[in-house]
Structures are given as structure tokens and as C-alpha cells.
Amino acid sequence: xxxMYWKDNHLFILDQTKLPHEIVYYQCKNYQDVIHTIKxxxxxxxxxxxVAAAFAMALAELAxxxxxxxxxxxxxxxxxxxxxxxxxxxxxxxxxAGISARDEALxxxxxxxxxxxxxxxxxxxxxxxxxxxxxxxxxxxxxxxxYGTALGVFRAAVEQGKTIxxxxxxxxxxxxxxxxxxxxxxxxxxxxxxxxxxxxxRLMQEGKIDKVVIGADRVARGGVANKIGSLMVALAAKRxxxxxxxxxxxxxxxxxxxxxxxxxxxRDPEEVxxxxxxxxxxxxxxxxxxxxxxVPSDLITGIITEEGIIEPF
Length: 313
Known about the structure:
This protein is α/β, with parallel strands linked by helices. It folds into two domains: 4-115, translation initiation factor eif-2b, domain 1 (Four Helix Bundle (Hemerythrin (Met), subunit A)); 126-310, Rossmann fold (3-Layer(aba) Sandwich). 37% of the residues lie in helices and 21% in strands. It has helices spanning 31-39, 46-63, 67-75, 82-96, 101-123, 150-159, 176-188, 200-205, 230-239, 270-273, and strands spanning 4-7, 10-14, 25-28, 132-135, 165-169, 192-195, 211-214, 218-221, 223-227, 244-247, 253-258, 274-275, 278-279, 292-296, 302-305, 308-310. The chain has a seven-stranded mixed β-sheet with strand order 6-5-4-7-10-15-16, with helices on both faces. Strands 11-8-9-14 form a four-stranded mixed β-sheet, with helices on one face. A three-stranded antiparallel β-sheet has the order 1-2-3, with helices on one face. Helix 6 (150-159) links the parallel strand 4 and strand 5 (165-169).
């Protein structure tokens, strides 16, 4: 299934907050609707957010809205994933060259799928037959238009005839690993196990993990920003000599800045205070809920891109 599709000048977005129990598409009739889906995590994952933002600009264009105003509102939806800014700016550049926002967004939609497949082909080279591979959060088809970045590497490895076992940690507090990555691997028929976040180090210590592959919301000088919990996985991998790879398209790169200058999103405390509808902490509990981690370059073995595997910078 695709995370989104364009039909009759409307954008339909798969509501990932309802997965894995329901498959429901939310109809976006204007750019404000798309902003809502980004803020509420109906659509998430850096590449998917980028393409959704492009379609938001297309909806603004079709409605005759002020594109500069729409661009600023869309960019403010989530601060950490650079694809959001990249996509909006690309649409503005296309408009200045006489290309419609709709046509450019549709082009970006198709490009994302091809980019992920190329990334998967390069990444599969580091996966050996029989490997047990761990991933954090969801960097699969659900984080893109289709196929995926980190999970795309696993898909490509299996397509090449390799037998692998995938380990997904749950990725609290929103559980993208449990809800989304496990769901994707089950749909593909790829062997998968779920662990709690705090078990990753234990499995590495026991020699049960051969490789780690995660995605990224931004790649910058000095490291990458990815879902909270990524740093602890990277530290454990370094300690136990487990190769740690990041799969990210070039649209996620922001080489002009230091990774430590990236604005890290702080999310609603209720994501931590509740598990589903069940409150898990006492009343008046104070919460810090950063959505992303910084993983320094010295903890990263390589960055898998659509142009090959490169060293962190």
C-alpha cells in the first residue's frame, strides 16, 4: 500500500495513527488539511512528509492561495525533518520556472519510489545471507511513498535471495516499530520479531544482532537526527562491534549546518503519560518528550544513499 495518492485534485493520506488495526485514507482538500496530517502523525517519516508537503503546495496553488504564506505555514508543521523544507522550496523554484506545483509534486512522488529502490540495492550489499538485522522506529514504505529506506534495504536483500531475520524495537512513546515496522515485515512475509526498546543492548551483548540499519530525518555535519532512542542503539552497537548504518536519501541531507544546530521537536507529554488510552504515570508527573536523537558521526559505519554508501561527515 502507498502512504498517499493523488486523485481528482485531492490528496489522500493513509492515516498511520490507525495502523495496524485499520486501513483508512484521509482526504485532504486544502493545504491546511495536509498540515493537520503532518502534525498529528497521520503521515510521518522524512521522505513521506516531504512529498506530502509538495502536494500541500499543489492544493494551495489549485485554490489560488498565497503560495509564500502557505509555504511558511507548511514549513512550521514539524521542525526537524529537513525534507519538509526541501520539498516546499523545490515547489517554489519549480513555480518560478513556470512548472505547476501539481506537476512537480507528482514528479517528486515518482522520484521517491525510484530513489528508495536504488538505496535498497546499495544497502543490500552490506547485508549477508543469514543476518539478523535490527531497526529502530519505522523507515519503511510507510515513511516514504513506497518501498522504504532502512526497511527498503531489507526488502532488497530478500529480493536478492538472502535469508534474514528482522528485529524491530517498539520505539516508544508512539510505537512506530511495533505498529508499523512489524506490520510491514509481516505483510512482506519477512521473518520479524518485536522487542522492547531497552532490550536492544542485551541482544547485541549476546551476539544476536549482526547489523543495525535505521533511517534519518536529517543528515548534517557531525551526524544524523533520527527518532528518539536511536542514540542508545548506536552506543550499544559501537560497544559490541555491530555495524551501524543509516539509510537516507540525499533530500534528507543538510550539509550546510551542524547536526547540533538542528531544532529538535518536543512533543505532547500525553504521548508518554498514556499507553493507548491507559494512563501509566501518576497525576502531576512532569515529562520531557523529545521526538528525535542526535547520533554522532563516529557511531555510524556508513550512510546508504541512492548514489551509494558514503562515510559520515
